[in-house]
Amino acid sequence: MSEPAAEPAAEPGSGPGPGSEFDAETRLAGDGPPFTARITDRWSGLAGVNGGFMLALCTGALGQVLPFPDPVVVSAFFLRPGSPGIAQVTTEVVRVGKTTAFGQASLWRDGREVVRATAAFTDLSLAAERAAGRSPAYTGTAPPALPPADECLTAAPAPLAGVTLTDRLEYRPGVAPGWMTGQPSGDPTAEFWMRFRDGREPDLAALPLLVDAAAPVVLEVGAASTTIELTVHLRAHPAPGWLACRALTRHVAGGYHEEDFEIWDSAGTLVAQSRQLALVLT
Amino acid sequence: MSEPAAEPAAEPGSGPGPGSEFDAETRLAGDGPPFTARITDRWSGLAGVNGGFMLALCTGALGQVLPFPDPVVVSAFFLRPGSPGIAQVTTEVVRVGKTTAFGQASLWRDGREVVRATAAFTDLSLAAERAAGRSPAYTGTAPPALPPADECLTAAPAPLAGVTLTDRLEYRPGVAPGWMTGQPSGDPTAEFWMRFRDGREPDLAALPLLVDAAAPVVLEVGAASTTIELTVHLRAHPAPGWLACRALTRHVAGGYHEEDFEIWDSAGTLVAQSRQLALVLT
Description:
The structure is a homodimer.
Chain A: H1 21-26, E1 35-39, E2 44-45, E3 48-49, H2 51-65, E4 70-78, E5 85-96, E6 101-109, E7 112-122, H3 124-131, E8 138-139, H4 165-168, E9 169-173, E10 189-196, H5 207-210, E11 225-234, E12 243-248, E13 251-253, E14 256-264, E15 270-280
């Protein structure tokens, strides 16, 4: 578990400073709970502050109050759009069992609840040790079949008003997204490599951000949307290196769609599996 | 806590009485919140009272306190095993927006929180009307390719100690599950028809139960498990008739597995899509 930070997070608009941008800007202040976060304008997508980034703040706060180190499943409801500025993160320890602990965290801006997240924490390494040799293993899908990252496209994303997340993260698709050139493919799927631009290696703390950090694949069918709920399963500690990502939407209907997202690490292990429900904007 | 029902639900072990068993036994008493439920031993799976049934109780309670009629996404964490008896259901209205309201409900037994559920409610029919003609529609998968229900197997499930859910629900698989005859297939997938035995038609209130009401498909790889978290997307009001169900698990690893579940109605519309994270029992 990380220890509470004495120093505040970076100022809005300031440079990353030494070390990881993500670590600096998700560091919670205060002896908490409640904790204080300073949300900058450096993690924004099309709809304001990225939901996955706010979920990472909530998950980080829960890591400080629960007795197990690793989130294994996190579910967040997005109640209002997020915005840069000082945020409070409140936590509740719901139940502590022998191998699993449950907690709830909320992120507040200006006294209004923006995100409510519930999570189960455990020790993933211990769980894997307990399971080894006693529990069956099964893998029904393979990692994305991408060329090596160096041979993939280095997407220079068209500057989109207010979108800064793409300055923090690097994306290397095998095939150029159609929507980006104004020609949606009609196929709401994508496979690409992803990593932090500043060289920070992936870990469990970053995965709630990363599953929500790519452009929604419904752009390929001409839809834009806003996330209502996002559930992330954290399946293993990621190995260092590029992450292979797969995003797909199977059902756009009745004004809603789901998006599934998988992240596989450089060793070919599935490390995160997420699904969100989003409201199509009309 | 509010008083138990003036008109109590069915006693454990009693017959269904007139009308739907599910409606009678999910009826909440009290002027609530909090509400009171009388959980019978008639909705139990291998691990005690079915999680989906308890989720249906929580979702029903939220329907009474939120200003929109339809759950669109519900996420539940299972903190402790459920057991038959008097339960309290507490609710919190988290946020009411113009088209979406958020709430949280907990189910308690003997003063201990057993299930915590968070949900977003809306008016699904209005949402579909708003989207019609303005939002793209896309379907990337098809309903299960099952023979008509009358031509499927009428599984007479082997009596499993304590399992009563199979007396309430009828399952008609296209192919007999391997695990049931002691020959797990190695393929953790299943497709089958499902309906209430007493003729009750499906609706949104029943879907949180139904997505969790079939045997876990990991039995086909020799694993048993207990659910930690279950998220259900409710995508449309189901048409009357048999429901076509598809369950699949893609990743059993590190002591955990996910299970995805789809329910398609008799008109071929996807009405529910769920995913759960479960801990493999070793």
